[in-house]
Amino acid sequence: MYCTNCGLQIPENTQFCSNCDQKRIAAGVSSTNNYLFNIQKSKDKYDAYEDAKAFTYAMVGIIIIIVIVFTFLASGLLEFFLN
Ligand SMILES: [Zn+2]
After folding, report:
1. How far is the CA of 14 from the centre of ligand 1 (A)?
2. Structural contact between residues 14 and 25, judged by C-beta atoms closer than 8 angstroms
3. pLDDT score, position 63
4. Distance (Å, rounded) from C-alpha 68 to C-alpha 59?
5. What is the tens place of the pLDDT at every residue in 13-66?
6. From CA 15, how far away is CA 29, in angstroms rounded?
């Protein structure tokens, strides 16, 4: 089985991890559960990465909209003053 904290492979039915002294190791935790746990962790990382990407796209979109609006406003003001 694997330590639920650090992922180190430890003997079956071990209560304490020799690497991190993790005391919450359950006897029933199998390598499959650890595998799913790691998948969930990497999925969380992926979600955070996707959130950051979505945020970046949103910011770029907002900046582009602001630039377009200001361009229209500036050209409108320019025409106002030129006329
Ligand atoms: Zn450990």
Report:
1. 11
2. yes
3. 98
4. 14
5. 777 788 887 665 554 455 666 666 776 777 787 788 888 999 999 999 999 999
6. 11
Q: What is the pTM of this model?
A: 0.41
Query: E strands within the chain?
Result: none
40 Cα to the center of ligand 1, angstroms: 18
- Cα of 47 to ligand 1 centre, how many Å? 25
- What is the rounded distance in angstroms from the CA atom of residue 28 to the CA atom of residue 60? 48
Q: Which amino acid is at 31?
A: S
For residue 58, the CA-to-ligand 1 centroid distance in Å is 40
- Using the mean position of ligand 1's atoms as its centre, give its distance from the Cα of residue 50 in Å: 29
SS3 content of the chain, % helix, strand, coil (to 5): 65, 0, 35
pLDDT at 22: 61
pLDDT for 21 equals 76
